[in-house]
Amino acid sequence: MNILKNKMQRRDFLRTLAKAGLTTAFTSQFMLSANVFAQAGGAKRFVMVFYPNGCVRDKWHSYNTGALGSGSFDTSPLQHLNTHINKIVAFKNLSYNGHGGSSGHPEACRGVFSGGVERAPSFDVAMGEALGGRLTNNMHVGVWSSRAIGAEYLPFTNKNGNKIQVSDNPQQVYDNLLADIVGSSSGTPDPEAERRKKVLESLHENLDLLQANTLNIKQQGKLLTHEEALNYYQSTLTGTLDIGGGTGFSRPTIGMTGVNDDAELIAKAQMRNIAMAFQADITRTASFQFMGAQDESLKINFPSVRPYMGDFGSGDKLNYNETRSHVSSHNESALFDSQTRWYNMMVAYLMDELAARPDVAYGGTLLDNTLILVMSEVGGGNHQQENPGIYVAGGAGGAIQNGKAIDAMNNGMSNLYLDIAKAFGLNWGRYGNSYGGISGFLL
Predict the structure, then answer these.
(1) Coil, strand, or helix at residue 100?
(2) Helices and strands, number each (H, E), in the chain
(3) Which of 169, 172, 363, 395 is buried deepest, with most CB atoms within 10 A?
(4) C-alpha closest to that of 270 among 364, 186, 192, 172
(5) Ordered strands of the 88-92 beta sheet
(6) Rounded distance, CA 440 to CA 107, Å?
(7) From residue 433, how far is each of 3, 182, 387, 400 by CA, in Å?
(8) Does the predicted model carry a pTM greater than 0.85?
(9) Mind listing the pLDDT tens digit for each residue in 298-345?
């Protein structure tokens, strides 16, 4: 009993030191807690979606500012979002200038996604750190992202300043994050999960032996950090998770095949992985990446988008180089406009999946409580920094003025980042190069 009491007292003492910043490792662990920095707010879940090479801005922004109606996007590649028009905020005249914008793709990727501060953690990572998660603070998934020219062409940066290599394999994402949580439909115990439980038990025993030694404060803090992590993962594996009726969970039928024609199925499987992870309350933050910047690896010529591709929608032209995003972007042609339409089709699919699933943790549907940010690293296909194609989707817990298009009056992108953080109740004074907010966005 005395040993247990002393161990508990030591934990309390170390936690006090950690909160004071004296044990750096454990302080960083506290930063991952869901409730440390996040105050009560409307939005609960965040998705950041990256598409490469900008858009044809005149076509993208063909809607009028003000209230959005059922046909507001009919002449825009945003048309497929009409089903959820009451959960869209579209932006005109935002600016990357002074907020990480650059005429070069890799240079833009160094700053645009971190509010203009080069090589700082990107916004999705900052949000994941603040909001926390039960199994991971941020799940990164993608389509053809592994084929990026180089790491400098990837949009997302971790808290150590390194570019994040996202997984393109939907089955791998499911196996790593969801398989143990959801379990098999037959109720048969997963032998891999049982093996992991035994490993965790052994690690706990080793930690107990180490903690019996005479250690300095820094060493004790590091051990406590490991113990907290082990406790978390052990409770995740052994605990009972309320996932509602248990329906809607299944392993993707497709992995990363590398076959161009499969890319749409892979994109949908990844979107569905995000929705399942949110429903299982594994994480509150997810990032989705369509390829890398300046990407030419994927031909966007799927049956769903062919009606909008003109001469390139049939016959031999289906496989011309122009059906690759970066090749066609500099022409800012109708073909490039149709390619950006495909990205929005996939976002619409994600919204459908979120709308169809209950949010067991926060009530309503997942879409009701989610805020989705969709953006590229440049504005137009010729690397312009002004008026990029950006919108926010989802109910965001009622924290934003949905169903409208806003003229941002050339405000910087960092200002929108800051407002999004505020929609989650985060009490950030600024983010990156922000100097205010976007009028008309927050309630």
Answers:
(1) coil
(2) 14, 8
(3) 395
(4) 172
(5) 66-67, 404-407, 88-92, 390-393, 370-375, 45-50, 285-290, 139-143
(6) 31
(7) 51, 41, 18, 22
(8) no
(9) 999 999 999 999 999 999 999 999 999 999 999 888 999 999 999 999
